[in-house]
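Field reference: sequence -> structure
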Amino acid sequence: MENSPQYLFLASGVKNGEGFWSLGVKNCDEIILEDKNLLDCHRKELIGNKSANDIIFAINLNIKNLFEELRNKNYLIEKPSMGISLDIPLDIIESIFDFWLDIYKDQEAWETCLGLLKVRKRISLKNLIESNSLKGNSKKWAIKIESLHTYVPNSLRIEKRNEPMWK
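Structure field:
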């Protein structure tokens, strides 16, 4: 049961009138379809439970890094009460999902990419790429991981204004 086959899925959903992307694991195809909060299933892969959890970890970290970067650049991204914000377009979410699902098939590449993603949590990989600090496959994967963090919303930035010291 520890590594029994599970469905890793990406779906759109709505709860209390609020839309979101849902990423999860279910043990049965019908359970995904029966979930009243889910509208459409955009990706669904049958894989082992441990694999699914590893991949979800990487996808969530990737998305968290992306949100953090957007927040640091003062972009307003609505945070839904559950799931992932619909402010991130489906094609971006699908690209992230597909990359981590695909890279998991090569254990050496997976470990390299996951390590780079953890580094990306703290700093951009651009400087490492441009300074030629990374070589070979590490550089190739760093470029790909950096590309998964390049989304910029069409919405305007929130301009922070300093309040006057006196009124």
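Note: The helical segments are 29-34, 49-72, 90-103, 107-122, 126-130, 136-147.
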